[in-house]
Amino acid sequence: MRIGIVCPYSWDVPGGVQFHIRDLAEYFIRLGHEVSVLAPSDDDTPLPPYVVSAGRAVPVPYNGSVARLNFGFLSAARVRRWLHDGAFDVVHIHEPTSPSLGLLTCWAAQGPIVATFHTSNPRSRAMIAAYAILQAALEKISARIAVSEYARRTLVEHLGGDAVVIPNGVDVDFFAKAEPKPEWQGGTIGFIGRIDEPRKGLPVLMRALPKILAARPETRLLVAGRGDEEAAVAELPEELRSRVEFLGMVSDEDKARLLRSVDLYVAPNTGGESFGIILVEAMSAGAPVLASDLDAFVQVLDQGRAGEVFANEDADALATAAVRLLGDPDRRAELSARGSAHVRRFDWSTVGADILSVYETVTAGAAAVATDERPGFRSRFGLAARD
User: What is the pTM of this model?
Assistant: First the structure.
């Protein structure tokens, strides 16, 4: 099958959507499919052979973060050329409502289109305001996927229709088989995320750290991610700053080794999360997880059975839970075992097969859908039956 995948966000600024698309493309390539990914990227950025650059992206504040998007006449021309050269059996657009390549591709593509919705934003005024503009593009979509129930709910409430829920995928064995690093072991808490992005929650963890260190002074916090390290510890008492080690951007291999090494992984994110891929990666590595009680996180953690949660943005609650878990190796081992078992449902062997099933259904049924010859097809994948 010839598969075209559209990434809305800049390939050279890694994030959850980009990682999902990368792993999905490589999963299909391993199965023998022909895959091309169209993504914004600086022209001098080295790209995998299956990625085609649509040109440089522009940073735009969105959903508590900064999305780097690509839009305009030049981008539209590159989209048309990519579609023409690819002659794809199916086009898979991620975040088709963002003002980026996805929307441009929706307008230009012919044939079966699958769309994945990643965003969870229950009060998106921008999405509501743009509905009239988006409607024509959305009507061309053959099947809709949401990465979580919360992403599906955002879609339903703002744009109508429905979607099948297929979560983000992870190569579970890649994390499970990583070798721990001795220098990252022993009384360590892990955090991975963009330091400068408040919704990732590092300031909450920093406010909790003095209480954690007062109870367990041997503890170290390992922080992986890009951002202003001095600003991150500015509010921390100077005598405690040596207990924070910044690792900068880490490779996929070192991320897995970090998660295999820490005694506790903390996800203090404050909002804007529709899934929680880092939780899945941490559970895959066997790390006990402590996360804020965002709805999406609670769902990923099997309603709190595969990891513990604390009240969102409550640094004291975070500290209390962290101190208790650091002092209870049996509870950490229990969480590790439960997480390792629960996370198998997110492995690419399951998630990729589900997405491929959607592709096969829309390609096989493209002609039949136009004449409503397959009862239940359109409702299953989030589209109303045509009159």
Answer: 0.84
